[in-house]
Amino acid sequence: MYLYDEIDQRLVDERVAQFRDQTRRFLAGELSEDDFRPLRLQNGLYIQRFAPMLRIAIPYGFLASRQLRALACIARKWDRGYGHFSTRQNIQFNWPKLEDVPDILAKLATVQMHAIQTSGNCIRNTTTDHFAGTAPDEIVDPLVWCEIIRQWSTFHPEFAYLPRKFKIAVSGSESDRAATRVHDIGLQATRDAAGKVGFRVLAGGGLGRTPLLGAVMREFMPWQHLLTYLEAILRVYNRYGRRDNKYRARIKILVKELTPDVFRAQVEDEWSHLQGSASTLTADEVQRVEQRFTRPGYRKSDALSPGYVLALSRDKAFSNWVRRNVQPHKVAGYAAVTLSLKKTGAPPGDATADQMDAIADLADRFSFSELRVSHEQNLILADVRQTDLFDLWQQARALGLATPNIGLITNIIACPGGDFCSLANAKSIPVAEALQRRFDDLDYLHDIGELDLNISGCMNSCGHHHIGHIGILGVDKQGAEYYQISIGGAQGNQAALGKVLGPSVSQAEVPDVIERLIELYLERRDSEEERFIDVVRRIGIEPFKEYVYGNHHQPAASPRRQLATA
Amino acid sequence: MATIISRRQVLADNWQLLKRAADGSIEIPSDGDVIVPLSTWLEQRDALVKRTGQLGVWLEGSDDPALLVADLEHFALIAVHFQQFTDGRGYSIARLLRARYGWQRELRAVGDVLRDQLFYLSSCGFNTFALRADQNVQAAMTAFEDFSEAYQGSVERPQPLFRRRSLIQHEDTQKAAI
Ligand code: SF4
Prior knowledge:
- With 566 residues, chain A is α+β, with helices and mostly antiparallel strands.
- Chain A contains 18 helices and 21 strands.
- Chain A has four domains: 6-60 and 79-109, no CATH class; 127-290, Sulfite Reductase Hemoprotein, domain 1 (2-Layer Sandwich), CATH 3.30.413.10; 306-398, Alpha-Beta Complex (Sulfite Reductase Hemoprotein, domain 2); 413-565, Sulfite Reductase Hemoprotein, domain 1 (2-Layer Sandwich).
- Chain A is 36% helix and 17% strand.
- Chain B has five helices and eight strands; from the N terminus they run ββββαββαβαβαα.
- Chain B has 178 residues and is α/β, with parallel strands linked by helices.
- Chain B starts with a strand and ends with a helix.
- Chain B folds into two domains: 3-147, TIM Barrel; 149-178.
- The A-B interface holds A 5-7, 10-11, 14-15, 18, 22, 30-31, 35, 38-39, 121, 151-152, 154-162, 235, 238-239, 243, 273, 278-279, 281-282, 284-285, 288 and B 85-89, 91-93, 95, 100, 114, 116-117, 119-121, 123-124, 136, 146-154, 158-163, 165-166, 168-169, 172.
- Residues 415-417, 421, 423-424, 456-458, 460-463 of chain A line the site of iron/sulfur cluster.
């Protein structure tokens, strides 16, 4: 956790005062709706279907237990007792009153939190791998770099009114767990031949209406030059990105229209002027930021404790949970635990105020008072002693947070969709729930194995449906809510964009279609090791298409239940 | 008389901002201080330098300030026009004029210029502001105090915070000691 110094704190406090005055002027009629809109957006405040929605930044997904308690307090006092963790490592409240927002922001500032630049056409929250700092393969600690970028991008005067929103992701290792290829800028730590540390810089990736993978700007940029290089990319984008059509305004369109080579040449030209300027980073600064992070004080323990091994062999439910929800740790005797916010029946990513308080207690007791939000909308206790796992599991289970479904089909990533979002074509929460109910049998679930399923309520793709192994997108078909299904998407080093399976289907048909996809997968897989995505890659999309849509085609015998033709 | 904010004071404005008519023509008074569009400067530079009265030039967000690099000595003022305050291209133009092309005289924001953008505009190097007509100029003066610090370097204070942080903290502890 990065601890603010006096200046960091002062800037956040001044921001609260600034927004309080802007809100006052808006309510007094001195500031028009149009003039106020970009100001409130850059403070996280949207006008949604029913009420304003406030999006609070959780920088790179890191949260201290006292911060989570403050969020619980906000949920109780100013909202309806719950919050929604989003795929952007933020938390959203759906029911605050506009006039209360300055007080909410002031409350957040007391625990070093804010809603700065969580919306609007500016540089947004920088995201990273949710196992950052605990993964064994890291070249740099991405948290330090995210914080350096957070400071550089916070209130950047030149880039507050970009053509469109701008998202940066950082991966600290060669294995990309931060989806760097589908961000406006992706930074991946790497070393050059001499062993020096730097970043591979990608630009122009993104999801949405025109999904594209980022193009390489630099295979290796020494870390000292990171900020000046970012400045060069942002300046070219700010000047030449399209402003005439908001659907063509993201940097990916500029990179595509110019071609990556021409865009890169412009960036390099810009950078030749900025190289070596005052924004060039110093080792002192990197060290200063590093030292302001609190670090867990690990205790020496054995790699495997006998009590833990015994519990694993005795309790199937526990070992199931360990298999799905517990990740290895670079420190012997420790593990990272994912608390699932994907219990059937609860909207994916939602947590009640009572759950938040209880989770804060778990973090205090088991994980150095810190936790993380994953972009899969779960909460992670990253530093748990192995000897505590059984205890933690029992407590998490009592709280409904131990569903052993991480990486499985019911760990659905879904945007808030038509229940809350005014841009939606269709609802996403009821679809998620119907799927969770359809795949409620644990043995079946584990048999299906690893599968990412993502749902977005519209082309804005907040649910990242393009990179789900199965993606579901809400579309509008003559005023009715329909769903387009794609398969074959993936995140990580093998990032790929899903391909559309066929004509869109009604809400009631979605679970049947998904089940048929799964049936064919189970039928065609080579072994239990071959995941759904592997089979799609091997045999292509056609057989799936035919199996779902081809009505003259005899469906393969269902291993589980006989289905009406979809 | 129109007013402007200049170096954080409200002053009367003596400049006339000239725009092209719908048919593309432009009328240039023979004396007085005028700000002409970039295209007019590029077409009529010889006539313009012979005028009495001061000369300024204004750019749209889509204009390239590099076109002025060789001509800077002819101007007392450069203005950047914001068609909409949400169009941020003018911020980059200001940074380029100040940091790359060495422009040191008056740099003015005109058009859809509002109180709530003054802080960032001034960080990028604008030093005079012709606010949109409906703005309360006196009340807007507080905008320059919205923040007491900034992480980034600005035109007035080129060193970013990380290069100044240890000095600031050193001063603070000294103050505390006194
Ligand atoms: S994907 Fe569309 S419906 Fe879902 S949250 Fe984003 S904008 Fe709203």
